[in-house]
Amino acid sequence: MSEPAKPGILDRLRARFEWFDHVMRANDRFDESKGNFFAAGLTYYTIFALFPLLMVGFSVSGFLLSRRPDVLTGIDNKVRGAVPGALGQQLVDLMNSAIASRASVGVIGLAVAAWVGLNWIGNLRVALSEMWKQGEGSRGYIRTKFSDLATMVSSFVAILATLALSALAAAAPMGKLLGWLGIHNAPVLDAIFRAGSMLISLLLSWLVFTWMIARLPREPVRFASSIQAALIAAIGFELFKLVGSIYLKSVLHSPAGATFGPVLGLMVFAYVTARLLLFATAWAATSTNSLLAVPVEPPAPKAITPKIHLNEDLNVRQALAAAAVGAIGALSLSRLMRRNRG
Question: Which of 16, 57, 127, 252 has the fewest CB atoms within 10 Å distance of its CB?
Fold first, then answer.
């Protein structure tokens, strides 16, 4: 008899450490739900959405500059001074034509941005629903698009508010604030203020990730199921932002780095952020409480049909046994009858 196979190192680690078993369950759910595929699609729509957003930005700038001719004249003079000759004049004419067509550029930019944004939020909601193993349901096309539009607007407001508060916290004039308080040359307090700004940014990211994991899927889940996973995603997001800032500072010194570095950095940033969000959702969906809360579907009904097998063919042994039993029975019956007569 062969001995049972010994468990591998991963099986032993999963049996010993509950957190490692949770990581492996989340990774399996991420792979089964095509997390890499959805992360790549979300990255594509994120980069694609930048172009209509830039068009909207140019349109807004055009409306602002059209009301400030003195600022526009100053910009023209700076462009001509930086790029003399016919090329500078062409840049000025291009800028003036863009300002003149600011209304049409803004309308086209808003329309394209809305279309790309709906595709982005639709794919994001499908990806999060896949991590939770939720069914698509039958909501209807119009109802689904209106739901995606409301979710897109609320997500945009939440992300914009988070980025704005994070930027304000990071760019707070610590030196001036300490100077107003009459404190000078206090590196310890400056470090405390900077740590406080990082903590505020972490808390804001935690709130946004919690909301996205719990409310963006097609079927919303409880916030309690996403708190721990959102904290993990927020910590990874803040660490990645720190690494990204160091990367941008290192690549912006050369002309090639200044040209391609921000674009590559933005693509990597969007992809890693999407993977963080999807993996955190898989972590929340594979927690013990979430798995216990999943209803178990009853098995499909099956008809029980008993099978009776009749063996009509007698073998030699069975025939001899039957003959012996019959002979013994006949002899016993004949003796009994003789006794009764006598």
Answer: 16
